């Protein structure tokens, strides 16, 4: 056990203290074994004259068991006996979560662990996953129909699987992945360790528990080395996925188009040279790159079909979770979900008597109007006289059709549809309010201040008006 821990010594500058370590301590057999082995490793390093900071044990209190308070007490006692700092964090786990209570508990646990690591400046978080966990995870992912990223299972080192929020600066380390549960149990007995047993681990209602208690023993009876075999399969899957990601990255760069706004866009016409499997691989890669959930195989196939078969001037909307994959003017891009304003929400005009506000929130249209003062020496084009802004109330109103806008004073007014088309503003970006003042258009989001409203002395205070998306 201690040899396994020593085999994953964290690289460091020998002249500096080792980076701060933390341990995810549930109180079960696995984490108590790692706690004991890590305490011995720290003691050995200190006896060798190395500067090793006090490690931190982090316990997550899920509140799902009537025994949870007792487990916290055991964890704190065992951690402090071994010279660890200790922190307990309580989380709320929704019992009706879409990913199930196990998935919700896991997400809440890693979010809390990441927050604790960030707060304490932890560089490495150790978890007690072992060889049996690895084998169970591979089979579990296969049965759930996961692709190569799923069956690649767990790596010894990696990032914390935190879905959202502040990025975690700590790295996740699983030093016991090559150690079996049986070996860990023997270590615990030899060391007379105390641990807690979670009754839910015997509940066959959960698939992982059913695999652990019913399936794995049967496999072991016929294939004693099944753990090593599945671990090797997981490594091969990870290598294959790495090659697919490299291919997708090359295809992504080949199809990428230049964008002035910094958005990632792919040229649809360049994707037509890819066959169905390669296009699906690229779409899968791009979806993961955007931090979105992996789409089902049938959805990927449908996306690919529509993208390949669409006419040159076609537009597509392919919803996926909280985002939409859109095709517009031969370019594919991921966008937020821009809904048309609810007629009930915008039945009445929204009025602002402007008196120096920097922002005008307009949630009905999923955005805000931002006012920015023009600094001395800046160009005054597309700006408005402060006296005009203050003179009369500003009114935000949905488009009714037929509105006209001019780019500059003295220019010809044309329909908003004309301007949007000529400037390449996609249809889904046109659900925005028009700002009026005394029956005249002052500002149109994505176009700018109306030419007639730009008139006025350049020597007086002037302001820019900009639209900020908040979809």
From TrEMBL:
Boundaries of every Lysidine-tRNA(Ile) synthetase C-terminal domain copy: 394-463
Location in or out of the cell: Cytoplasm
Signal peptide stretch: none
tRNA processing is among the record's keywords: yes
SUPFAM superfamilies to which the protein is assigned, alphabetical: Adenine nucleotide alpha hydrolases-like (SSF52402), MesJ substrate recognition domain-like (SSF82829), PheT/TilS domain (SSF56037)
Tree of life domain: Bacteria
Pfam families from the UniProt entry: ATP_bind_3, TilS, TilS_C
Residues that bind ATP: 26-31
Reactions it catalyzes: cytidine(34) in tRNA(Ile2) + L-lysine + ATP = lysidine(34) in tRNA(Ile2) + AMP + diphosphate + H(+)
Gene Ontology cellular component annotations, sorted alphabetically: cytoplasm
MF annotations from Gene Ontology: ATP binding; tRNA(Ile)-lysidine synthase activity
GO biological process: tRNA modification
EC number per UniProt: 6.3.4.19
Keywords from the UniProt entry: ATP-binding, Cytoplasm, Ligase, Nucleotide-binding, tRNA processing
InterPro entries, per database record: Lysidine-tRNA-synth_C, Rossmann-like_a/b/a_fold, TilS/TtcA_N, tRNA_Ile_lys_synt, tRNA_Ile_lys_synt_N, tRNA_Ile_lys_synt_subst-bd
Function in brief: Ligates lysine onto the cytidine present at position 34 of the AUA codon-specific tRNA(Ile) that contains the anticodon CAU, in an ATP-dependent manner. Cytidine is converted to lysidine, thus changing the amino acid specificity of the tRNA from methionine to isoleucine.
Notes concerning its domains: The N-terminal region contains the highly conserved SGGXDS motif, predicted to be a P-loop motif involved in ATP binding.
Family: Belongs to the tRNA(Ile)-lysidine synthase family.
Name of the featured protein: tRNA(Ile)-lysidine synthase
Organism: Pandoraea bronchicola
Lineage: Bacteria, Pseudomonadati, Pseudomonadota, Betaproteobacteria, Burkholderiales
Name of the encoding gene: tilS
């Amino acid at each position: 056990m201690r040899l396994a821990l020593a085999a994953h010594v964290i690289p460091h500058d020998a002249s500096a203290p080792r980076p701060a370590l933390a341990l995810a301590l549930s109180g079960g057999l696995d984490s108590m074994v790692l706690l004991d082995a890590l305490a011995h490793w720290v003691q050995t390093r200190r006896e060798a004259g190395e500067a090793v900071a006090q490690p931190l044990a982090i316990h997550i209190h899920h509140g799902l068991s009537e025994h949870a308070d007792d487990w916290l007490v055991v964890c704190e006692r065992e951690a402090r006996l071994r010279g660890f700092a200790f922190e307990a964090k309580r989380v709320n786990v929704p019992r009706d979560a879409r990913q199930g209570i196990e998935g919700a508990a896991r997400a809440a646990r890693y979010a809390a662990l990441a927050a604790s690591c960030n707060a304490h400046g932890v560089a490495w978080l150790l978890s007690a996953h072992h060889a049996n966990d690895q084998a169970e995870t591979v089979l579990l992912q296969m049965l759930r129909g996961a692709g190569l990223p799923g069956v690649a299972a767990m790596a010894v080192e990696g990032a914390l699987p935190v879905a959202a929020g502040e990025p975690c600066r700590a790295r996740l380390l699983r030093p016991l992945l090559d150690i079996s549960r049986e070996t860990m149990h023997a270590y615990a007995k030899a060391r007379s360790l105390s641990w807690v047993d979670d009754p839910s681990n015997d509940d066959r209602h959960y698939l992982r528990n059913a695999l652990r208690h019913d399936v794995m023993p049967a496999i072991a009876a016929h294939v004693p080395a099944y753990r090593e075999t599945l671990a090797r399969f997981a490594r091969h899957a990870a290598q294959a996925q790495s090659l697919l990601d490299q291919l997708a990255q090359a295809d992504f760069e080949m199809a990428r188009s230049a964008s002035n706004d910094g958005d990632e866009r792919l040229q649809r016409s360049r994707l037509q040279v890819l066959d169905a499997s390669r296009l699906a691989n690229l779409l899968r890669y791009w979806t993961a790159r955007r931090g979105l959930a992996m789409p089902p195989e049938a959805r990927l196939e449908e996306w690919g079909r529509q993208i390949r078969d669409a006419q040159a001037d076609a537009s597509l909307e392919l919803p996926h979770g909280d985002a939409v994959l859109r095709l517009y003017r031969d370019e594919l891009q991921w966008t937020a979900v821009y809904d048309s304003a609810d007629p009930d929400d915008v039945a009445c005009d929204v009025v602002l008597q402007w008196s120096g506000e920097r922002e005008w929130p307009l949630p009905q249209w999923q955005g805000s109007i931002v006012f920015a003062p023009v600094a001395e020496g800046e160009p005054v084009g597309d700006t408005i006289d402060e006296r005009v802004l203050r003179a009369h109330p500003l009114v935000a109103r949905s488009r009714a059709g037929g509105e006209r806008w001019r780019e500059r004073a003295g220019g010809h007014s044309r329909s908003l549809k004309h301007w949007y088309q000529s400037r390449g503003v996609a249809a889904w970006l046109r659900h925005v309010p028009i700002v009026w003042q005394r029956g005249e258009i002052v500002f149109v989001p994505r176009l700018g201040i109306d030419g007639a409203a730009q008139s006025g002395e350049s020597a007086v205070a002037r302001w820019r008006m900009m639209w900020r998306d908040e979809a």
